[in-house]
Amino acid sequence: MLNDNSIIIFDDLGTKAYKKLKEMIISGQLKPGQKLNQVKLAEKLGISRTPLLQAMNRLTSEQLTETIPRRGTRVRKFTNEDLLSIFEIRGRLEPYICELAARSINEEQILLLQENIAEMSKAIENNDEAIFKTLDNEFHSIIIEGSNNSFIAEVLQKYVPLMHAVNLLKPMEKSLQDHKNIVESLIEKDGLGASQLMHYHIYGSTKNKLLQILSQRG
């Protein structure tokens, strides 16, 4: 029988496993359609199956993975309709959340954004797209949290990673410059400017890349 301490330990390990698996999906180490081998993943992460299953269930609830009866769990493959819907949700909400963040984001969060940009520059120097994708997701998460709107934040924290998981990044250098411009607007508390910059960031070459992916799928 598990005691309270055992449950706390499993919860902590499950959270760590969840964060690591989510990072692996976002960075592309785990690809759409790839089956999650529980034995290999538990060994790789150095945990037992209980916290691993907690992590996988959480990822499934966020639609990053899907469980198929008698076939196991795999990284989710999105349909064309899924991708368009996710893109529109993000495109409509994130510019608004950026406007809100310009009013409420604190100094600590601004510092985190600046540190994130510095790490992105290093990733570009090392041509490390996997790390860049993880940092890109982190950048948007900081802004979402800085909006102080928990309802919209909950929606976006779910859907922004999905766009990273299907590799919709624009060129790293261009994305980094967009981020620098957005942070400047947030520092200046320019809500309209921040919103417009985020709109451009999402609807610029990102949408063109999405349409290209959809046309290749047929």
Question: Can you give a write-up of this model?
Answer:
The protein has about 220 residues and is mainly alpha-helical. The protein has 2 domains: about 5-75, Arc Repressor Mutant, subunit A (Orthogonal Bundle), CATH 1.10.10.10; about 80-215, Four Helix Bundle (Hemerythrin (Met), subunit A), CATH 1.20.120.530. The protein has 10 helices and 2 strands. It has helices at about 5-25, 40-45, 50-60, 80-105, 105-125, 130-145, 150-165, 170-185, 190-205, 205-215; strands at about 65-70, 70-75. The protein has a two-stranded antiparallel sheet with strand order 1-2. The longest helix is centred in the middle third of the chain and has 25 residues, at about 80-105. It is globular and about 50 Å long. The N and C termini lie far apart (about 55 Å).
